[in-house]
């Protein structure tokens, strides 16, 4: 049976640094979390001028995985756990913050030197309490390393996380999650079978779609019921989407600033640890 749509949430501008404004569709004033999906930001498209220094300065995280989906441009990552990496359009960067680290992100040096257009989505994926204090890790994959799924003419979708159609993403995760993203040409239809009982979200980063009888446009996030399994998406104009599905984490959530923990006391501890220098330093 087709899933019912619970919410169609329109993203709003949110200033996250002095220089950076994002479109935030989750959390939303009408719907806070779809645990394990905590935050979804859409950044860009923005033009980077040649000779720019535009990067987000080192900042701390603890207790979750920031996952970045590159729509346009090239993405850079560096952290003080010794990880670094670059990915280009269609690729994915997946950092597990665990017990805590500092990281910096933004365009690659090539884009800073030569200019270009940057656009990406960043998802904050919660992890179970049992793993929040594990050691951090980092992984990435270029577009070519992500299996194509839902294949047909006019549909270019990649499996960024989980298993689908007998194929597997190279990304590892403490949280059972499926992430599929890419483009659908106008007039094309895809059918998804989501696991009943799992969270299910569809974000439109380009164009317009019809989904289970309702319309969603760019910067809108569709939250579907956990019951049932059927999702039918038709692109009413050329569209780009991110489909997310995951087993819910039935644990308390405390999320503030750059941390996702289980209690307000743990958030306060993280903030105090950062102020005390316990997250270390990072030259970027």
Structure description:
The protein has about 280 residues and is mostly beta strands. β23 and β24 (about 260) form a beta hairpin. Helix content is about 5%, strand content about 55%. The protein has helices at about 110-115, 265-275; strands at about 5-10, 10-15, 20-25, 35-50, 55-60, 65-70, 75-80, 85-90, 90-95, 100-105, 115-125, 135-140, 150, 155-160, 165, 165-170, 175-185, 190-195, 200-210, 215, 220-225, 230-245, 255, 260. The chain is globular. It has a single domain, classed as Jelly Rolls (Sandwich). Strands 1, 13, 14, 17, 18, 19, 20, 21 and 22 form a nine-stranded antiparallel sheet that branches. Strands 2-3-4-11-6-9-12 form a seven-stranded antiparallel sheet. The chain contains two helices and 24 strands.
List the helices and strands and how they pair.
Elements: E1 5-10, E2 12-15, E3 21-26, E4 37-48, E5 56-61, E6 64-72, E7 74-79, E8 84-88, E9 92-96, E10 101-107, H1 109-114, E11 116-126, E12 137-141, E13 148-152, E14 155-161, E15 163-164, E16 167-168, E17 177-184, E18 189-193, E19 199-211, E20 214-217, E21 220-224, E22 230-246, E23 254-256, E24 259-261, H2 264-275
Antiparallel strand pairs: 1-21, 2-3, 3-4, 4-11, 5-10, 6-9, 6-11, 7-8, 7-10, 9-12, 13-14, 14-17, 15-16, 17-22, 18-22, 19-20, 19-21, 19-22, 23-24
